[in-house]
Amino acid sequence: QSYCHRLQHDMYFLTSTSRLNEQVVDKIVLQLNRVYPQILTNEEAEKFRNPKASLHTRLSDLLKHLQKKGDRHCQEFYRALQINAEQLFNDLPSRKILKTSDPTEIDTDKEQYMLNDRGPVFFLACFSMAAGLALFWYCCNSVFTFSFSSRLCSVLETKVIGRARRILGFSPIIIGRHVRSICMLYLEDISRN
């Protein structure tokens, strides 16, 4: 959507009573007069800052004038409005339409609370996996090697009983049977001491 169409859509909202006061309109006109490339000439700026005319008339004439000049002029108006009246800029009807219709725009309110789209269960599973591997590495590094024989695994499976089975049996991590058995054996040995 072009800035001229957006300005046409926002014209009633901007010109309605008590939306913009005289000081803000004067700041916007001055900014449009002083920005490079110059959007309003000195004569045009004086015309739109004339205190003899009503604010509603000056603002309506300014918006119509910018629409006739083209898209670049309307874009600079929106930039000046954002700088001088940010709350009003955020409340514009065209901004609300853009927010709801643009699927690629990031909603900053949701972004603050959502780290990823997988949710807390995925985070807990990854954290549990990392914690389990760290525990295994720390406790079993000096005792076991990484090549497990089938005999060692069968011995470990028969020794794992008690509280360790209850602790690791309900963990959300999905690890191999051999690693799980070693961790359970280690926890069982600790609980005996």
UniProtKB/TrEMBL annotation:
The record's annotation in InterPro entries points to: CARD, CARD19, CARD_BinCARD, DEATH-like_dom_sf
Q: Localized where?
A: Endoplasmic reticulum membrane; Mitochondrion membrane
CDD domains, from UniProt? Answer: CARD_BinCARD_like
Domain CARD per the UniProt entry, residue ranges: 38-96
Q: Which PROSITE patterns match?
A: CARD
Q: Which UniProt keywords apply?
A: Disulfide bond, Endoplasmic reticulum, Membrane, Mitochondrion, Transmembrane, Transmembrane helix
Residue spans crossing the bilayer: 120-138
How does the protein associate with the membrane? Single-pass membrane protein
In its UniProt record, which GO terms are filed under biological process?
regulation of apoptotic process
One Pfam family it belongs to: CARD
Protein's UniProt keywords contain Disulfide bond? yes
Any one GO cellular component localisation term in the record: mitochondrial membrane
**Protein's UniProt keywords contain Mitochondrion:** yes
Subunit details for this protein? Associates with BCL10 by CARD-CARD interaction.
- Protein name, entry field: Caspase recruitment domain-containing protein 19
Q: Which lineage do the record's taxonomy fields give for this organism? A: Eukaryota, Metazoa, Chordata, Craniata, Vertebrata
